[in-house]
Amino acid sequence: MRRAAIVAPLRTPVGTFGGSLRPLAVEALGAHVVNAILQKTGLDPLRIDDIVFAQSYANSETPCVGRWIGLQAGLPVSVPGMQLDRRCGGGLQAVVSAAMMVQTGAADVVIAGGVESMSNIEYYSTDMRWGSRSGSVKLHDRLERGRERSQPEERFGHISGMIETAENLARDYGISREDADAYALRSHQRAASAWAEGRFDAEVVPISVPQRKGDPLLFSRDEGIRADASLDSLSKLRPLMRDGTVTAGNSSQQNDAAAACLIVAEDKLAELGLEPMGYLVGWAAAGCEPSRMGIGPVPAVRKLLARTGLSLEQMDLMEINEAFACQVLAVLKGLEWDAAERLNVNGSGISLGHPIGATGVRMLTTLLHELQRRQGRYGLETMCIGGGQGLAAIFERF
């Protein structure tokens, strides 16, 4: 079976909710990264066999976002595209799904990516198709509804959302508010240092954002990082649930961004003149109780290590998506792993943000660039998923 190489992983800067990227739709964000990859690699677009893009909050304004992004980017109409959704793990799933296409010989070159514009997630109604006989029509916030409807209530009971699942883990694993705030502070400090030291320069593609008045502005830097955060400022934030651990300060943000890469068959790299950054070693998905969805990385990582024969000690870097600080800390306890110097070394969801469908590819992009800087060999990426799943993958630097 052919190895699947990862080539030219790139991302936009991450915008805050309602922030700088709000004027841009998902197709504009995705097309911008695709064009940047083609410009960087010089690849003939006709050699692209497929486009696989994740989007977790899709709607009919941009159906089948992978196909739409290809067309928006000006690719030949002969290049097909598709969309997938594994919620928070969608971006990583896009990468591994594209890799399987390459490994099995179904394709030689696939663009894999993820995109989300949480600022533009709409309200919708299920009352209007056949009319409402009387009374008011209800509008759902798709953003909140997607969290509330992550599992069948008739089987698992009512789960108010992801915050509740994080609080369950904080109780289960004895994670204190102080522990969570300290972790959140470290995330912001690491992200701020990464920008200050130029560690994101090679992976971030600035994007021009139109303005209602005046010239477009060039957006070039993640805007959710709080470089001035302190334990004192974080401790003053009110818990989101009564007597809880989770606050706005130790949770992931809601964001807008796109990220993508080329997945290329190893035996086609020389012919196409492409230089890989890494290879997919293996991946695994696992389910867990929806009420404890944040612990999903633990069974996923265990399954992956068993399949590959590798160990956590062999991982030079590890990326765990920071949905909540207490969730990351619970995962570390569940894995019995504590190597802070190798974990999320440039920040993650709490500081950089969590644009749901894009996050998995954003994490991969940061992971591979950091592995290259450190000349490490293996990197592990894992994330929890609403509804009770975990996804994990190991990549080897070229």
UniProtKB/TrEMBL annotation:
<dbReference type="GO" id="GO:0044281">
    <property type="term" value="P:small molecule metabolic process"/>
</dbReference>
<feature type="active site" description="Acyl-thioester intermediate">
    <location>
        <position position="88"/>
    </location>
</feature>
<keyword id="KW-0012">Acyltransferase</keyword>
<feature type="active site" description="Proton acceptor">
    <location>
        <position position="384"/>
    </location>
</feature>
<dbReference type="InterPro" id="IPR016039">
    <property type="entry name" value="Thiolase-like"/>
</dbReference>
<feature type="active site" description="Proton acceptor">
    <location>
        <position position="354"/>
    </location>
</feature>
<feature type="domain" description="Thiolase N-terminal">
    <location>
        <begin position="5"/>
        <end position="267"/>
    </location>
</feature>
<dbReference type="InterPro" id="IPR020616">
    <property type="entry name" value="Thiolase_N"/>
</dbReference>
<feature type="domain" description="Thiolase C-terminal">
    <location>
        <begin position="275"/>
        <end position="397"/>
    </location>
</feature>
<comment type="similarity">
    <text>Belongs to the thiolase-like superfamily. Thiolase family.</text>
</comment>
<keyword id="KW-0808">Transferase</keyword>
<dbReference type="Pfam" id="PF02803">
    <property type="entry name" value="Thiolase_C"/>
</dbReference>
<dbReference type="Pfam" id="PF00108">
    <property type="entry name" value="Thiolase_N"/>
</dbReference>
<protein>
    <submittedName>
        <fullName>Acetyl-CoA C-acyltransferase</fullName>
        <ecNumber>2.3.1.16</ecNumber>
    </submittedName>
</protein>
<dbReference type="GO" id="GO:0033812">
    <property type="term" value="F:3-oxoadipyl-CoA thiolase activity"/>
</dbReference>
<dbReference type="InterPro" id="IPR020617">
    <property type="entry name" value="Thiolase_C"/>
</dbReference>
<dbReference type="InterPro" id="IPR002155">
    <property type="entry name" value="Thiolase"/>
</dbReference>
